[in-house]
Amino acid sequence: MPSRRPIVFGNWKMNGLGRDARALADALKGQGRPAEGTLGVFPPFTQLAAVAERLAGSGIVVGAQDCHEAAKGAFTGSVCASMIADAGATAVILGHSERRHGLGETDAVVHAKAQAALAAGLATVVICIGETEAEYLDRRTLAVLDRQVEGSIPAGIDAKCLVVAYEPVWAIGTGRTPTIDEIGQVHAHLRRKLIGHLGEGGRSVPVQYGGSVKGANAEAILGVADVDGALVGGASLDPAEFTKIFTAGGGRFAAPGS
Ligand code: PGA
């Protein structure tokens, strides 16, 4: 994973029929190759191969939103990491709060999925962590994040394959965000924690902020010292808004054809 800032990923969640996915991919590709920073999209499984094919050679990362922890087998309805790679994708989001809190996914499961993803040859795992509103109000944010880092991120992981996304659960899809100061404090803490957990490699692991990032707040959030990028949900479905977040954070496209 190129570590140059900003690293802006769009999580399409359960959105995107074929026509929408093709239009979104084409609109992003039409901007030209990302020349400064890294851009990526995470469509639903049904659109993964089509989007990967459309974006092949564009310099835009394509990934899935989850994978199963087993390499294959009798797991009806599930998709394993080698299937994701086979579809042409190179990355996967793991431990998103909608899976942790909506589907009961534990740190141990996220840890196992990360190992499965890397064993299958995916280049990048994006591991999401974040506190609930009750934990935030209780001032337990840092303790919760520490537990999630220790439990979800394999200590032996190659740091070059890892992106961490800090996403306060209460900021996702709500239009609310922590203050810029709070985001700065959490990210500074996470940097120290990642160095403690992974050793020197933890110094270069990109840490994204996610939760209600829009064109209007991107410059302020992505300007925070330890914020290396953004994981974007709703706003990633609008190519103009998504592009605005990327460029507000210092991203730049090469002119088409160059
Ligand atoms: P949001 O979602 O940008 O719609 O708040 C972020 C996410 O869930 O990754």
Strand order of the largest sheet: 1-3-4-5-6-7-8-9
Cofactors, ions, other ligands = 2-phosphoglycolic acid
Task: Summarize model confidence as the mean pLDDT.
Answer: 96
What oligomeric state is this?
single chain
Alpha-beta content class: alpha/beta
**Relative helix content:** 25-40%
Number of helix segments? 10
Q: Specify the biggest β-sheet.
A: 8 strands, parallel, barrel
Order of helices and strands: EHEEHEHEHHEHHEHEHEHE
The percent range for strand residues is: 15-25%
User: What's the total count of β strands?
Assistant: 10
Report, as a whole number of angstroms, the end-to-end distance: 22 Å
Shape: globular
Note poorly predicted spans: none
Rg from C-alpha positions? Answer: 17 Å
Task: Give the secondary structure arrangement, pairings included.
Elements: E1 7-11, H1 18-29, E2 34-36, E3 38-42, H2 45-54, E4 61-64, H3 81-86, E5 91-94, H4 97-100, H5 107-119, E6 124-129, H6 133-137, H7 141-152, E7 162-166, H8 180-198, E8 207-210, H9 215-222, E9 229-232, H10 239-248, E10 252-253
Parallel strand pairs: 1-3, 1-9, 3-4, 4-5, 5-6, 6-7, 7-8, 8-9
Antiparallel strand pairs: 2-10
Helix pairs in contact: 1-2, 5-7, 7-8, 9-10
Bound molecules: 2-phosphoglycolic acid.
